[in-house]
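ARCHIVE CARD
Drawer: 12
Card no.: 0347
Subject: one protein chain, sequence and derived structure
Cross-reference: see card 0346
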Amino acid sequence: MVTVYGKPACTGCRATKRMLDKLGVVYEEVDLTQDEAALARFQEKGLVTAPIVETDTDTWSGFRYDKLKELV
């Protein structure tokens, strides 16, 4: 399962979702401006740059082409 936590008008979020679509990776999208609990959880871990991508085995923030390619 892949979840992309992002914010409206976030360039990195759009790029991440476009890449996931191109790679054929199914993902769930969560708006961090609407989910205060998720935002607080990531801030506690020091993840403050959107998007934040969470998989079953990894979590990272920002557009990470290398990590996205690993999902295929």
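Annotation on reverse: The chain has three helices and four strands. The longest helix spans residues 11-23.
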